[in-house]
């Protein structure tokens, strides 16, 4: 039922009786007046919106035209504006109706107000600015002069530069005077387009004319000036702001503190901070982080920790960024020993994820001792561990060659609810192998299997390589057989590790047989495979076999690298084959390989060999022979 515009009642007091609850009144009400008549044109507006929103008809605009014809009504521009407002949840439909009304309704003509309505709708919907320009072209074609609101909307929808100039030209053409709000829109348009200098020029012009911005626009201008490095201009705007009685808020001070801190103006940002607190501005997370960052850039570690304590006292919970900038400050100033002090201050907010972040950050930056300290605090503070933190700590211990601690951590992970996996074990196996601690490898391998973790190809490769490094050929060969029996297929790396182990421990024939087996099983030897065997044959004085393998390598399409050439050059030099060595060096250069320090060292030996002193038989009065250098 339609709501009446207003309803009034009149009456008189018929009786009054006292009672414990208070006086009781009896009121006689006059007869209800007749209902106020409805606006006779209100119904067509509602009906038009209902017809256009209907999903039943495929042509709602034509249905609307038929409806209006049946009523013998022509919509006014104000009524069309109301229809557009009713259709605001569906901007494309509202725009379609707007254009339909102008082209298909007899006698209809939009005015500036209806154009402003559709422009405002497009502005809120973040429509393409080109659509607004088409509407402006329609206005000019139909001779509709816009008002200052039209200019404000167009400036707000567009960017800076040429678009603002076009809007100003239209304002001049329509004889409009720019308002303070228009100037504000122009300033913001320039700032959105990162035209900070132009925005500041417009601001100065509006200031001369006695206009002022609101707090939002002031903050937007201050932020843009700060980011553009226009520090003095920002200070000027801030002073203007106070003179215009626009009270700065927490965001204003945050901008100024950040800007002053980056510019190294310590006294300035400290005074802004004091002013902010004295004016009762509530410091939020962003404000505290900004202050801490500014203090850090100016190497004021004590004040950083003081502000952090005030932050916690204000029940403002530090976030990851807070800890990140604090950590950077302490590390830069060489005061990571104060990290425990920071953690004590923030103890009630120290979550598992924050501990994990700190451990990972310290690990990445190479501060292993501090990372271990934080990790121990996390271990004692939380029943459940964080997987990422545990993995980071494991990597740090392995890289620091603290293998016993790494093994202990690996075996204690389940106590904190962290399920260990094969990749974790592989990290420890690799560290043990590099340190040749193979006895620990064997024990850990047994515990790994006891815990139900199945070794993968990387596990076997690491262990075979580790056994080979200490000369345990039988162990390496046995593990290779265990690997095949378990259904884990070896790869080229596996064969390379075992061939290297066999060859360098004197089992060259066995290594060569494994090489052939590798080829028979369909594995393509890589440059590392060939380099291993060439080196082993060379050290066994089997130069012809080494050269044969080198030729085979090239024939199989495996390109030798600088290491391969160095190995064969060294082999030829040791056997005195200087001519072949020179030929090989020329081949290497033709391949585009750049000699390294090892190459030059071998070449020097080759040259010195060719110039070595030799015995020359020459008759003298002294019996025997003398040694004379060959010049």
UniProtKB/TrEMBL annotation:
- Annotated PANTHER family: PENTATRICOPEPTIDE REPEAT-CONTAINING PROTEIN 4, MITOCHONDRIAL-RELATED, RESPIRATORY COMPLEX I CHAPERONE (CIA84), PUTATIVE (AFU_ORTHOLOGUE AFUA_2G06020)-RELATED
Source taxon at top rank: Eukaryota
Q: Which PROSITE patterns match?
A: PPR
The top of its lineage is: Eukaryota, Viridiplantae, Streptophyta, Embryophyta, Tracheophyta
Keyword Transit peptide among UniProt keywords: yes
Question: PPR repeat positions in this chain?
Answer: 111-146, 179-213, 214-248, 249-283, 284-318, 421-455, 456-490, 491-525, 526-560, 561-595
For the region Disordered, give the residue spans. 1-26
Q: What is this protein called?
A: Pentacotripeptide-repeat region of PRORP domain-containing protein
The record's GO molecular-function terms, alphabetically, read: mRNA binding
Native species: Oryza brachyantha
The UniProt entry, under InterPro entries, shows: PPR_rpt, TPR-like_helical_dom_sf
